[in-house]
Amino acid sequence: MFADYHVHTAFSDDSIYPMEQVVQDATSKKIDEICFTEHVDYGIKVDWDSGKEIVYRNGEPCANCNYPLYMKTIKQMKERYGNKITIKTGLEFGMQMHTIKLYEKLFSQYDLDFVLLSIHQVNDLEFWNQDYQRGKTQKEYNEGYYDEMLQLVKSYKNYSVLAHMDLITRYDNDGVYSFEKIKNKITEILKIVIGDGKGIELNTSSRRYGLSDSTPCRDILTLYYNLGGNIITIGSDSHKPEHLGAYIQEGKELLRSIGFTQYCTFEKMKQYFILFRI
Length: 278
Fold this sequence. Notes:
Layout: E1 3-7, H1 19-28, E2 33-40, E3 55-57, E4 60-62, H2 67-81, E5 86-94, H3 100-109, E6 114-118, E7 121-122, E8 125-126, H4 138-155, E9 161-162, H5 179-195, E10 199-203, H6 218-226, E11 232-235, H7 248-258, E12 262-267, E13 270-275
Helix pairs in contact: 1-2, 4-5, 5-6
């Protein structure tokens, strides 16, 4: 079973990869199942039909997924390629505490198989451009990131897994913040996730970003396993052809080395366990 559970297309504002081409490339790579997870980042982006002014960044519109067209196109892809590949419908909720109600409304409007809960910004300040980190100590922006995550998992429950759980590491210009300093916060987060029957994601994009550890790091994966967590998906965070399905098999080996015996796919927000091949 070769599944990629974090795939973006041109329906995400940071990709120009046509959905049909993604499906065709996935079949050529002998991927059995993909889940599309287009970006939704309320607070810093508006919906395509909101009537509000859409900000342009590097010449591209900074807006959320066009949901009706997205759903229609996935249906078409299933009709055309359903005999070759399993296609699931997901979204990536780039959530903040002050945007929860918007996501609750969105979740109620569409039938989704899978929801990634991500944190891409705090207080509408993004990580990738250092807006969030600027003016803060390494301790302040790392611990502030996990404080936001803790409040979110306490408050919001309509998601499947926590995506790229230590994403802040990718954008930390001061180096890797010590796991021991945040272990207690992460433990509290993971206990809530496990108690709610939710999971976490192994995001294989760490390889293309040249990070020294996995995403999340091996310490977090091991802690999740030791706490009894067993719901885990594997996704490439694909935005381009060369990303699709990349390092998924290596990700399985990493999980097996920690002790995991299975990973998950989803349908209608319910997880299904896939045993690793021995």
